[in-house]
Backbone:
């Protein structure tokens, strides 16, 4: 019974493989861009900051900063971009500006903080592992100081998200999976044709398929990570290229981000040592993948660009 069902399934796949491949590629692409098509209903609800049971709102200062960044970035239609108050330590964004829903960018509440007037997260209770962080201790003081950014660093952080969405970053990342799937299937067909396995035993075709799938999965991980890191550097440099002020802010942004991670490493104990390197970079989530470019390398890239601008 099982053998008969397997043969019928193999015959069905053989007859409709083109349609199945197209449908699978479309599905893989759609899953990754769905929340960018409806950012208001998906991404914003997930990242919205709340205060006293109500959605938090951006201050007028941050709204003005956001509009200034849009102008500096040369956005043709600022109405396609909207900002909201988000929780977390750095800006987040989703959406495609050329679609009707536009783009949504979340600006953290602690961007209202200044050295003279702390506000947002840096002036509230910070919980680590369920315990409040003492502000008078060295790690707690370092964490709070790392959350205070200059206006230049704030503009760079927001500008990077604007550049990412403006340049179609979500589409580029989403295209890797369907491209890898299509290439793997085509390679599988080519290998079986070259080796003459279509006329041979089903077992050999199954082993060939398994080998091609393994190589395809490994290739997808490598290409996906390489594209992700390339895009990290690309959006950083695009934002830093807007002006020397943005480049200087980018260096400060990553220095503060690294300092924050070092402080969290000390405050979170063993879990912090597993998440953060002594330099402040993030450890990879798995031993064979490095999805994001290291923060130190991204900072050094902007330092190099800043030297070019000053030369």
Residues:
């Amino acid at each position: 019974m099982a053998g008969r069902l397997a043969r019928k399934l193999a015959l069905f796949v053989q007859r409709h493989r083109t349609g199945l491949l197209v449908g699978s590629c479309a599905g893989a692409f759609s899953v990754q861009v769905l929340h960018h098509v409806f950012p208001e209903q998906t991404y914003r609800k997930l990242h919205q900051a709340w205060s006293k049971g109500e959605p938090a709102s951006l201050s007028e200062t941050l709204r003005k900063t956001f509009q200034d960044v849009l102008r500096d970035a040369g956005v043709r239609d600022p109405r396609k971009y909207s900002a909201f108050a988000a929780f977390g330590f750095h800006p987040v964004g989703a959406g495609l500006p050329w679609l009707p829903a536009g783009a949504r960018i979340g600006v953290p509440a602690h961007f209202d903080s200044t050295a003279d007037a702390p506000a947002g997260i840096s002036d509230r209770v910070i919980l680590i592992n369920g315990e409040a962080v003492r502000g008078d201790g060295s790690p707690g003081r370092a964490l709070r100081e790392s959350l205070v950014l200059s206006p230049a660093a704030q503009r760079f952080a927001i500008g990077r998200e604007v550049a990412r969405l403006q340049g179609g970053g979500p589409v580029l990342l989403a295209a890797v999976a369907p491209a890898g799937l299509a290439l793997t299937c085509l390679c599988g067909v080519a290998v079986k044709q070259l080796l003459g396995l279509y006329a041979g035993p089903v077992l050999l075709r199954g082993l060939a398929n398994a080998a091609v799938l393994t190589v395809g999965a490994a290739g997808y991980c490598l290409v996906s990570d390489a594209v992700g890191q390339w895009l990290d550097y690309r959006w950083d440099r695009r934002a830093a290229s807007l002006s020397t002020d943005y480049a200087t802010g980018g260096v400060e942004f990553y220095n503060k981000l690294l300092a924050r991670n070092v402080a969290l490493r000390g405050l979170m104990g063993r879990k912090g040592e597993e998440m953060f390197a002594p330099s402040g970079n993030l450890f990879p989530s798995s031993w064979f993948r490095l999805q994001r470019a290291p923060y130190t390398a991204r900072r050094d890239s902007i330092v190099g660009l800043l030297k070019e601008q000053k030369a």
Q: What stands out?
A: DSSP finds twelve helices and seven strands in the chain. Residues 32-309 form one domain.
